[in-house]
Amino acid sequence: MKSSNILLHALLLLLVLCSFTTCDAQSRVHHLEMVQTWPNTFCQSTRCATPIPDNFTIHGLWPAAIDGHSLKNCNTTYNQSSTYYQGIRGDMDKYWPYLKGKTPKQNENYWWYQWTKHGCCQKEFQPHDYYMKAIKLKNDISPLKILGDSNILPGSSKPYTKNAIFKAFAKVIGIGNKIWLTCHKKNGHFMLKEVYVCFDPKGNSPVSCTWTAKARTCGNGTILFPSPEVGSCDLFRFLLSIS
């Protein structure tokens, strides 16, 4: 009986410790990940609503731990409300659309999903300010412009190296600040899918992304940057053109 009580107390202590180390994610925010998606790659692997945007769109603004893993599914005391988008609704629809949806309500559900899964794991911003910060960072950091300024253009038959993409961003966010890239692989080719740019917990200054393993999703070779005109039916012709 005595040993059973000791075991019970040990289990209760373990649960308490776990609640502090895994659930209190707010205390572990090391940086914010501003994640932007290139729709023309994303829509190669899933059915998207048309028209497909011809610019990078926001996937999310994700609090992350020091090892780079995004913090997820923390408790939130807020309830879903359209008031969070007052004054920024037009920008939200434009820069943060739900690529697989067609209705304003689907957009709102997607934004709320991003808050409940990621956004509420930080304590700097309430929902409205969180969404405003994401829009501001989107306007400050435009991957399409950054890449274009370095002559990395969508639709070119020329594959690009990761190093060339990294250098393009270094001109804007600082040489010492590393970004992450993710890609979609199809027919043996890696296509640029998402760009992660990291910021301090208040979203004021770029910092280096810390989870370098994410870059491995783009392989060790070159990366394609498919044009807005390339849809799933035209992908085979596009790949033939660069062979």
TrEMBL record:
Work out whether the entry's keyword set contains Signal. yes
Q: Which domain of life is it from?
A: Eukaryota
What protein name does the entry list? Uncharacterized protein
The record's GO molecular-function terms, alphabetically, read:
endonuclease activity; hydrolase activity; lyase activity
Write the record's keywords in alphabetical order, separated by commas: Disulfide bond, Endonuclease, Hydrolase, Lyase, Nuclease, Signal
Q: Which family does this protein fall into? A: Belongs to the RNase T2 family.
- Pfam families associated with the record: Ribonuclease_T2
Q: What is the annotated signal peptide range for this record?
A: 1-25
The answer to whether the entry has keyword Signal is yes
The record's section on Gene3D superfamilies has:
Ribonuclease T2-like (3.90.730.10)
